[in-house]
Amino acid sequence: MIASRRTILAASALSLPLSAPWVTSRAQSGGTLTVVLNQGLLARLWIDELHPAFERETGARLNVQQSVTANMLAMLRTQRDNPPDLMQFSEAGVFAAAQAGLLRPHNPANIPNWAFLRDAFKLADNYSAGVIDAVHTLYYNTRAQTTQPTAWAQLWDPSSRRRVAIPPITWNSGVRMVTTAAQIATGKPFAEAQRDLDAGIRHLARLKENGAIAYTGAPQAIQMLQSGQIPLVPFYGIFINPIIEQGAPIKPAVPLTEGIHGEIVGLNMPVNARNVELAERYVNMSLSREFQSKIDSVLHSRAANREVNPSPRTMELLGPPENILYADWRFLSEQRGRLTDAWNNVFG
């Protein structure tokens, strides 16, 4: 199949290239805030909507980079004495970074909009200020898959043979696929099943036997899903919902019997950040009702500010809030190395 221009543009917007190594300098402290954002459409929202207002209101300049959680954690270690001022990564990395002494907790007294933060977005004893819920669920191509799946377990059904692509274990969503597989294999409630990772790996091996593959990057996943080549693909809504709004033949399978995957992405301050006051102003503006409303209207995701209620369209794409389940990342981050080895033995 020849990709359409829209397919190519959508894949390009979602490409997540690794940023080149960079180092802040002491000369940049004071009037410049150094921020490392996540990537793709998530970062673009901050760059387009928040940054012009921040620079106008503070008179400060922004030094912005984009990266992924694993690279940011490595940067925290290697640049401990000269780190950026803020880093945007998910709860999957917060607990490990805080435990290693690489982060400093936020002071809510200095962040007025913290008072409007939903409880689920207050992470790790205030070590992270949650700003968006990067919900992850199963998406399907409506032309190649005429019936909407109602359960993750349907991926293991013979009718789904060679029609499934799952995220790699290096992605947090890949870890959540293991916890969901454990849920299906054991029949236990999610809170218990997420700790039975061996059962999850064994059940994922059965998924591979059913012809499932693992994708290696966002553009590949999006193209397989949008073309219908692989019609059943778990993915993050914040990256794919804007493409759905452009008319792509894709829908989220919500709700799902086993629940879908919530993942809070937050702003995190390195322990030796220099521009603490500017960083706190940046966090405060990120939590404002005005900016948080864009998370709903542009990305169609769950906002951190409790005064921003999901629009009907966002509710349609996310499904009922009670169907969104949140993992114990304090536990999962401790198991990540062992889990990665076990997953690679199956899909490597």
Structural overview:
It is a single chain. The chain has 348 residues and is α/β, with parallel strands linked by helices. The protein folds into two domains: 17-134 and 263-309, 3-Layer(aba) Sandwich (D-Maltodextrin-Binding Protein, domain 2); 136-262 and 321-347, 3-Layer(aba) Sandwich (D-Maltodextrin-Binding Protein, domain 2). It is 42% helix and 17% strand. The chain has helices at 5-14, 40-58, 69-78, 91-99, 172-186, 190-193, 197-209, 218-227, 237-245, 276-286, 289-297, 312-318, 329-347; strands at residues 32-37, 61-66, 86-90, 103-104, 122-123, 128-133, 136-141, 165-166, 213-214, 232-236, 250-252, 260-262, 264-270, 302-303, 324-326. Strands 1, 2, 3, 4, 5, 6, 13 and 14 form an eight-stranded mixed β-sheet that branches. The radius of gyration is 20 Å and the shape is globular. It starts with a helix and ends with a helix. Mean pLDDT is 91; it is low at 1-30.
How would you briefly describe this protein structure?
The chain has 348 residues and is α/β, with parallel strands linked by helices. The chain has 13 helices and 15 strands. Strands 1, 2, 3, 4, 5, 6, 13 and 14 form an 8-stranded mixed beta sheet that branches. A 3-stranded antiparallel beta sheet has the order 10-7-11, with helices on one face. A two-stranded parallel sheet has the order 8-9.
